[in-house]
Amino acid sequence: MAMAWDKMSDLEYYYTAEYSGEVDGMNENEGEWLPCYHTNAYDHMATPVITSRDPGKIQLFHWGLIPHRTSSLQDALSIRQSTVMCRSEDMYDKYAYGELAKAGKRCLIPVSGYFEYFWVDAKGKTKIPYYIFLKDRPFFSIGGLYSRWTDKTSGKDFFTYTVCTTAANEFAAKIHNQGQRMPVILQTQEAERAWLNPTITKDDVVDLCRAIPDEFMAAHTVSRVITSKDNNVPEAIQPFSYTASSSPSLFE
Hints:
The chain has about 250 residues and is an alpha+beta fold. About 15% of the residues lie in helices and about 30% in strands.
């Protein structure tokens, strides 16, 4: 994902929320917000979220959900490797997510866009990275679930989240042609408010998880700098052209 806005005040104004700057027990205080042009899910960075419990605060939670029943820190660090994404169709039934979904522990994850790979060949030997975003929107909200887990040994609290996904619309499926999934995008402020309402029904939540219409989305190819260690640079989201043979035109 990318979180490439310059000032946290832009988010504060849009969400009518105050940035707390708080970081949990997983890291020391990470200081002032800086634009994030690329973050890998498995780096488990602390990134901004707005939760159903504290909708008036922008907090820093770590990507990779730790279920609250996890027994040890070792288990927590292992489990979060497999909980960066949650299929919205399964969220009420899976062990890691069911109690959270039923309790309305949902969150908004502000992003400027996200990355997917187009598989040029069936085995994925050649893959072209794309940056996907919404037209005329500097940032938007992805729907997620969040958790608070307490390490009984140290007494520290760890706040984490998972990104909810849904079946891709036609636009996103052209790019993510291997998995044909996309994040749950909450396109309007009305949808965002509903997502943070812990009392809405399961049917309402399922309805919010439907893919948004294709016409609101845009994308372009980006360089493979996103695969390097030093990937948090503006070049990560800037357009980059490949040869016609290696990157067929998907949207002509």
